[in-house]
Every structure is written in structure tokens, then in C-alpha cells.
Amino acid sequence: MKEFKNFIQGEFVATEKQFENRSPVDYSLIGMVHEAGREQVNAAVQAAKQALQGPWGQLTQAQRITLLNKVAERINERFEEFLTAECLDTGKPRHLAAHIDIPRGAANFKAFSETLANHPTESFRLDTPDTLGALNLGQRTPKGVIAVIAPWNLPLLLMTWKVGPALACGNTVVVKPSEETPATTTLLGEVMNECGVPAGVFNVVHGFGPDSAGAFLTEHPQVDAITFTGETRTGEIIMKAAACGLRNISLECGGKNPSLIFADADIEKAVEGTMRSAFVNCGQVCLGTERVYVQRPLFEKFLARMKEEVAKLKLGRPEDPQANFGPLVSLEHRDKVAHYYQLAQKEGAKVEIGGGIPDMGDPELNRGAWIEPTIWTGLPETARVIKEEIFGPCCHIAPFDTEEEVIALANATNYGLAAAIWTENTSRALRVAQRIEAGLVWVNSWFLRDLRTAFGGAKQSGIGREGGVHGLEFYTELKNICIKL
Ligand SMILES: NC(=O)C1=CN([C@@H]2O[C@H](COP(=O)(O)OP(=O)(O)OC[C@H]3O[C@@H](n4cnc5c(N)ncnc54)[C@H](O)[C@@H]3O)[C@@H](O)[C@H]2O)C=CC1
Ligand SMILES: O=C(O)/C=C/C=C(\O)C(=O)O
């Protein structure tokens, strides 16, 4: 039986209170997770605080970057272990995690280090009445102890996306991975020790949100800043916790992302991209498309091609080389998505394909969190299924006539994370992209990531930007030193 312990001050820490970690593939027991109480969370925060004053705080930026590059290399050396752990927790196909989750998990430690090493700080000369002037020098210092609250959909990728820059900037971290996916974060604790990252720099506390490790950590007065990825409503709770003591926050929350497909789009490219954006990772990507708008001349053909491609998706275990579609992360999440499937029909949707819980033809698999990839048409724009984030493998496809109309449709949401525009007309692409209310707009692509660019959402999709130099704003304190000459 596997055990997932907390990682505090460089040591694995057991607790009396434990909870089960179960596979979404067949509900088999993966292991027991040791839940951190207030005592362990406090110990982790204290360890992180002290580490700022210890050897970690004395390292030069170059030395920190060398250490973090070593962490990236060690993740790659232990690639198979990370891959197996991630697939056990999430049920996602091995080839998907091997292509995205684990390589990005390692790359996140390298990408930011390089940006940081090459980023200048500002300097201004100020005229003074005595004509001698003054020099202003910007200096960035670490913010302190960063709480990282991570989700379950891309567990290693999204956790290291925060831990990498936080450590590169000289901070220390306490990570609370999702209760659904404790494995790869725990494994990273071993890697930190193997690479010689000083004790207390990287800490892990396991548990849930309310009345558990998540709340204890975000409410802890010695946490200096909180970075979070997950649901918008959770983001609001964390924002309230951060208000006490005026701690800084970075929130990357939900989305209800549109795809805009114009009649002049390359239909095969648009189908391939929309298939990925709606169905990859079983639709559990915050950037994923749940609303597809297709210009009327292309509508029927596009819908037919999407249905053909959805019919080809093969559900199966992570290790099945033919399978390209896994289960949802948990039975609880499956219930939520299945509820939306029922609601769609009540709201008047035509189920074009899918729409239910599949019979996997195997009693073991039927215990898992499987759901059918689904396409709907015919819903009014006021439907809850069109308005609310489902976070499952489903999308609604609707026709539109004009550019003005589709821009209004795309923006008629409380969210503003991402959008994809498909057209061969570059002027139109730029014109429309500029008017979309979202943090990220892809043209003729989706999830094409350059880690130097700003990442984050508008409206209720989040606060702040991470990635490249933008992460510096959150992970460092910018001090101005004014020197009178
Ligand atoms: N990347 C994204 O944008 C994600 C969005 N979601 C959305 O959120 C929905 C619910 O999934 P959950 O896992 O419940 O998301 P969540 O937002 O509740 O959980 C994300 C993380 O926050 C922690 N958390 C929850 N409540 C907290 C609190 N009061 N204080 C501190 N930490 C807290 C959780 O333990 C987990 O580590 C999904 O159905 C989906 O719609 C979920 C995961 C990722
Ligand atoms: O590429 C990234 O950094 C992030 C991708 C996906 C998410 O943020 C998400 O699904 O939450």
C-alpha cells in the first residue's frame, strides 16, 4: 500500500489522520494520504520561513538557477516514476502525460530561470535643483514564503509552473496539492533532497480545502503571498483569506472559453484544434473550449466532421496504447459533469453524440469515473450549460452569421481566460483577437505555449499574470533605491 506523506523541512512526515487516494480508472485503492492538520501546516510554514534565512537565502541567483536546472534534470531521469504516478492519480493516457505533463513539469524549472537571469532592473536619473541629480535603482528581492494551492487536472505541470518561478526568485514554498492528486508533488520532495535543495525550501502539506490544509495554509499569517489555480469560487475564498494581512495573490481560475470558426478557416485544422481544445485530458483543461461558434456556411460540414472525430475517440486505461481518452478525475467530478449532461437535455439541447455514462464492457472499469465525449447543438445562449464551466469533455456548437455577432457571443460570459480564432484572413484574426475579452487568444492554434509570455485570465478567470518576466511582479518585491549624487 502506497503512503503519501507531508514533506516538511526535508523530511517525510506522517499524521494520524489519513484519507484514501483512489484511481479514477476503476476506483481501486492507490494508497493512503496523510492529512496535515494546523500543526503540520504551521511546521511547514516555519520551515519555509527559516529557510529564507539559511543557506538558501545566501545563494546567488546563478547558484539557485544551477540547483533548479538539476531538479529539472532529475525529474527527467525519474521520468517513468513521475509518469506512472501522474497516470495512476488522474487516469490520463500515458502518452498524453509523457508528451505534456511530465516534460512541462521539468521545463517549468528551467524556463523561468533563463528569463530571470536575462532580465534587467530599471534605473532612472532624476534632475535635482542643485544640478547634481540622483539615481534611482530598482532592486528585486524575494517575497518570502509562497503558498502554492494546486489543482488536479495537470498536477505536476501546474504545481511546478508556480514552484519553478517562486524558487528561482529566491522564495521558499509550501505546496498544497489537490487531495485528488497527491503523488507527483510528494515525489518532487524526494527529488529536492536528491538535488541538494536545502531543507525547508520546498514543503508539501496534504489535505482538503475548507477546515483542512488548504484553509490552514492560506490563512496562515506568516505566508507572504498565495498563488492558486482552480475554481473561481475557491479563488474568492482564498482572496478573502489573503485580505487579512494584505497578502498578495495570483489567481488562475475557471473559464468558459469560446472557439470562433470563420467560413474561410482551414476546416481540417479547425477540426483538429477544436477536438484537442474540447476533449484532450477529458476536457479538464482550464483553457479548453466549451462554446464553439461556426460561421453558417461551414456549420453543417464542421459539425459532421467533429462527430466523425469524436466517434473515433477510444476510451481506455492509461497504459492502453490505443486509448486516447481517459476518465474524469473522480466519481465526484463525474457526478458534476453528468449533472450538466442531464441539464443540457432539460434545457433543450440536441445531443449530437455522446451525452451519457458509457458501459465500458468491463465490471472493473465500470467502477471508474468514465463519461462520454459529448457534442450538443440547439441551446439558447441563456442556458446554464452555455454559461457555467463544466470542466468535462463536452462542447456546444452554434452557428453565427457576422463578425460583430460572434464577438458579442464570445464575450457574453463572466469568464475571460482563453479563446481560439480559426480563419485564413489575418486582418480579421487580428481585428477579432483585439476585441475578445480574454487573457489568451490563439489564432489557428490552441494551447501553443511559449513560457516567456503572460499567462492568466480577465474578468472572473483570475487576477494577475504569471509566465516570463510577468511572474517577477508576483514572486518578487520591487524596491526602489534612490541615491542622491
Ligand atoms: N485549472 C482549473 O482551472 C481548474 C478548475 N477546476 C474547476 O473547479 C471545479 C471543482 O474542482 P475542485 O478540485 O473542487 O477545485 P477547487 O478550486 O476546489 O480546488 C483546487 C485546489 O484548491 C484547494 N482548495 C479548495 N478549497 C479551498 C479553500 N477554501 N482554501 C484553500 N484551498 C482550497 C483544493 O484542495 C485544491 O488543492 C471543477 O469542477 C472545475 O470546474 C478544478 C481544477 C482545476
Ligand atoms: O500551460 C500552462 O501553463 C497551463 C495550462 C493549463 C491550465 O492552467 C489549467 O488547465 O488550469
UniProtKB/TrEMBL annotation:
Boundaries of every Aldehyde dehydrogenase domain copy: 15-481
Record flagged with keyword Cell membrane: no
A GO MF term: oxidoreductase activity, acting on the aldehyde or oxo group of donors, NAD or NADP as acceptor
InterPro entries in the record: Ald_DH/histidinol_DH, Ald_DH_C, Ald_DH_CS_CYS, Ald_DH_CS_GLU, Ald_DH_N, Aldehyde_DH_dom, OHmuconic_semiald_DH
Active site: 252
Alphabetical UniProt keywords: NAD, Oxidoreductase
Coiled coil regions, renumbered to chain: none
Family, similarity comment: Belongs to the aldehyde dehydrogenase family.
Matches recorded under PANTHER family: 2-AMINOMUCONIC SEMIALDEHYDE DEHYDROGENASE
Official protein name in the record: Aminomuconate-semialdehyde/2-hydroxymuconate-6-semialdehyde dehydrogenase
Annotated source species: Allopseudospirillum japonicum
Biological classification of the source: Bacteria, Pseudomonadati, Pseudomonadota, Gammaproteobacteria, Oceanospirillales
